[in-house]
Amino acid sequence: MMTDPIADMLTRIRNAVRIERQQLDMPTSNMRKGIAQVLKDEGYLWDYEEIETAPARTLRLHMKYGPNGERLITKIDRISKPGKRVYRGYKELRPVLGGMGIQILSTPQGIVSDRRARESKIGGEVLALVY
């Protein structure tokens, strides 16, 4: 039984980037699709798709690398964990590495990046840090 599916997703992405895989498959959920959408919108993934497989659906991420094969994701960490939730208001959200990275938040308006949360003036649970 998996206790933290978000941490599992981030670990799969971290491992795929380290071995330079072009695509990555994992079980799907609405939370995982939301995180994949944010990563795509922020330019860390080419695309993602949901594939119908038996017995459950699979989420396929198409990884993105630089023009010379360099990693776009150098670090991806879980911030809010099941044992210690981390919540931030939009005023408490600071740019990551001077705007070079993002925080992924779960808000009442869905899964969003810290940039969009500041623009929309909404806070939420800080799920992950990516740069």
TrEMBL record:
GO terms for biological process: translation. The keyword Lipid biosynthesis does not apply. GO terms for molecular function: rRNA binding; structural constituent of ribosome. One of its GO terms (cellular component) is ribonucleoprotein complex. InterPro entries: Ribosomal_uS8, Ribosomal_uS8_CS, Ribosomal_uS8_sf. Keywords: Ribonucleoprotein, Ribosomal protein, RNA-binding, rRNA-binding. PROSITE patterns: RIBOSOMAL_S8. One of the primary rRNA binding proteins, it binds directly to 16S rRNA central domain where it helps coordinate assembly of the platform of the 30S subunit. Belongs to the universal ribosomal protein uS8 family. Part of the 30S ribosomal subunit. Contacts proteins S5 and S12. HAMAP family: Ribosomal_uS8_B. NCBIfam families: PRK00136.1 (NF001109). This is Small ribosomal subunit protein uS8. It comes from Aquisphaera giovannonii.
